[in-house]
From TrEMBL:
Modification sites for N6-(pyridoxal phosphate)lysine: 243
Main subcellular localisation: cytoplasm
HAMAP family: ArgD_aminotrans_3 (MF_01107)
Alphabetical UniProt keywords: Amino-acid biosynthesis, Aminotransferase, Arginine biosynthesis, Cytoplasm, Pyridoxal phosphate, Transferase
Summary of subunit composition and partner proteins: Homodimer.
EC number of the protein: 2.6.1.11
Keyword Cell membrane appears in the UniProt entry: no
Catalytic activity: N(2)-acetyl-L-ornithine + 2-oxoglutarate = N-acetyl-L-glutamate 5-semialdehyde + L-glutamate
Leftover remarks: May also have succinyldiaminopimelate aminotransferase activity, thus carrying out the corresponding step in lysine biosynthesis.
Enzyme superclass (EC): transferase
Compartment(s) where it occurs, according to its Swiss-Prot or TrEMBL record: Cytoplasm
Pathway linked to the protein: Amino-acid biosynthesis; L-arginine biosynthesis; N(2)-acetyl-L-ornithine from L-glutamate: step 4/4
Protein name: Acetylornithine aminotransferase
Length: 402
């Protein structure tokens, strides 16, 4: 049957009817262990009781009023984010791309109100992914996302990650900001070194630039801290957040210092749906759990456990797993075989993982995953490796016969 949906996704022949914690129940009658979490979105798993309660209670009151009126739950959520981060102000949006758009506009506006409207260019880094709008695909700079959409939006320069000399060479009188993911998610779970991030901060301070962190995938507990910048010794001026902050409900946020945000006055930016009462109720419910004493420490501990178990798998299956990378519960396996083959083999074992660049499969389990479920996932990966190895052996034998 031909689908009426625009065919922009190569969807797996699989759909789900319900979820519970880290488990998804397929319409095929099978139960799947979800180590994709909706691409790092379902931070607290599926149907978390506290989130369900918050959403249903708010749904029986008011869904949408618009930002023409005060939204108390939004004020509360912004206050909690400010209290637990570097930021002084928050702008709520519906997605990560919108959060990044707000960050880009904020950086440009900052220089404009300082009397330097010529400073509008933003330097980004190869392998980045910042969204799918015309501006954010230009920021990401990847040819496969830019192709066919006309001239690239002006104002973005790209350099290799960790190449400080290339960065210094591209910074000029029109440069406004540097924009980076502390760990490149779509780019293949590639961690940017703390030393390089510190160099970025020093460059920004010395040249009057703003530092933007894209923590859409790394944020809200994914690495074992509320935000990944806390590991680095570096504080950004502006930070884009989404995915886990809504626990599955569409939501994003742009956080900033008062200085960085000083140009964003009444009428300079807006959103119809961003910060709506439903999203704010769920966002507060997510923080209720994430900010519980000891929760993030447990994420950190479980991340170390997962990394150790994956390293053991790599040692046992070097013909399948080439590299283990990541931090906390944001892990990546770079495979020897095509990552699509690895992902399909894992799915056959009823384990869901997500593809990424650099031939990587991402493991992004919900933060409430248990030690036993981590062990179960590792067992399923091992079974997938065994199937791949058997196929490799059969292919080698056929080649020898021929």
């Amino acid at each position: 049957m031909t689908s009426p949906l625009l065919p922009t996704y190569a969807r797996a022949e699989l759909s789900f009817e319900k979820g519970e914690g880290p488990w998804l129940f397929g319409r095929d009658g099978e139960r799947y262990l979800d180590f994709g979490a909706g691409i790092a979105v379902n931070a607290l798993g599926h149907a978390h009781p506290h989130l369900v309660q918050a959403l249903t209670e708010q749904a029986s009151k008011v869904w949408h009023t618009s930002n023409l009126f005060q939204i108390p739950e939004g004020e509360r959520l912004a206050k909690r984010l400010v209290e637990n981060t570097f930021a002084d102000v928050v702008f709520f949006s519906n997605s990560g791309a919108e959060a990044n758009e707000a960050a880009i506009k904020m950086a440009r506006k900052y220089h404009a109100v300082n009397g330097h409207p010529e400073r509008f260019r933003i330097v980004t880094f190869e392998g980045a992914f910042h969204g799918r709008t015309l501006a954010t695909i230009a920021a990401g700079g990847q040819a496969k996302y830019l192709e066919g959409f006309g001239p690239k939006v002006e104002g973005f320069d790209q350099v290799p990650v960790e190449d400080i000399e290339a960065l210094k060479a591209v910074i000029g009188p029109e440069t406004a900001a540097l924009m980076i993911e502390p760990i490149q998610g779509e780019g293949g779970i590639r961690t940017v070194s703390n030393a390089f991030l510190r160099e970025l901060r020093q460059l920004c301070d010395s040249q009057g630039l703003l530092l933007i962190f894209d923590e859409i995938q790394t944020g809200v507990g994914r690495t074992g801290k509320l935000f990944a910048y806390e590991w680095t010794g570096v504080t950004p001026d502006i930070m884009a957040v989404a995915k886990g902050i809504g626990g599955g409900f569409p939501m994003g946020a742009c956080l900033a210092t008062a200085e960085a945000a000083k140009g964003m006055t009444v009428g300079t930016h807006g959103t119809t749906f961003g910060g709506n009462p439903l999203a704010m109720a769920v966002g507060n419910a997510v923080l209720d759990i994430i900010l519980e004493p000891g929760f993030l420490k447990e994420v950190e501990r479980k991340g170390l456990l997962l990394k150790q178990r994956l390293a053991e798998l790599k040692d046992r299956h070097p013909g399948v797993i080439a590299d283990v990378r990541g931090h906390g519960l944001m892990m990546g396996l770079r495979s020897v075989v095509p990552n699509t083959e690895f992902i399909a083999a894992a799915r056959a074992q009823k384990l869901l993982v997500i593809g990424a660049g650099d031939n990587v499969a991402r493991l992004l389990p919900p933060l409430i995953i248990s030690d036993a479920e981590i062990g179960e996932a590792v067992n399923r990966i091992e079974a997938a490796c065994a199937v791949i190895e058997a196929g490799q052996q059969n292919a080698a034998q056929r080649g020898a016969v021929q």
